[in-house]
Amino acid sequence: MSRARAIALLVGVALASAGAGAGYYLWTLGKAEARTVVERIYGTKLPDLSGKTRSLDAWRGRVLVVNFWATWCAPCREEIPVFIRLQDRHGAKGLQFVGIAIDEPARVAAFAREFGINYPVMTGGLETLELLRQSGNRAGVLPYTLIIDRKGRLVSQEAGGLKESRLENLISPLM
Fold it and tell me: Is residue 153 part of a domain?
């Protein structure tokens, strides 16, 4: 093998190693960020519709679907009936939906009654917008949904409205 070819091979191996190292760093950074998101979610304490402060940590060990939404959000209004059906269908198997409404508590309570929401709904203001951003939704898009498995691993982050088939495909393997 010529000297030039050996140097080129050595440079190629060095670049591949550097690329692999950078990729591994970014992969582990993503895992650390996902753990941080989950811990923030579990550590969240907000008032429910009765005004009682609740912690999302109460649902640790369940398949947790956390949905950030608002009463005025059209895609939110479309997906909530899907959440109601799936909570009915899979709740006994360990699925738990939790809604975090970024809206006035009175409006949220009226909306929940009108739609027959069958899962816990919590309300929040500006601090909830910060939680939304810290959960990976830097643009502040609503609706925004996080899916956390029974072991506390972040499975999916979904911006925008979810269709029933997509959500069913995401949660079914976790049951």
Answer: yes
CA 81/CA 166 separation, integer angstroms = 14
Residue-wise pLDDT tens digits, 102-146: 989 999 999 999 999 999 999 987 778 888 888 888 888 899 999
pLDDT score of 20: 46
Global pTM reads 0.79
Check which CATH number belongs to the domain holding 98 and give it: 3.40.30.10
Phi first, then psi: what are they for 154, rounded to 5°?
A: -75, 115
What residues make up the domain containing 98? Answer: 41-174
Handedness of CA 122, 102, 151, 164 (dihedral sign): positive
**Residues 150-161, buried b or exposed e (16+ Cβ, 10 A)?**
eeeebbbebbeb
Number of separate domains in the chain: 1
Nearest to 88 by CA among 111, 62, 116, 129: 116
Element (H, E) at 16: helix 3-42
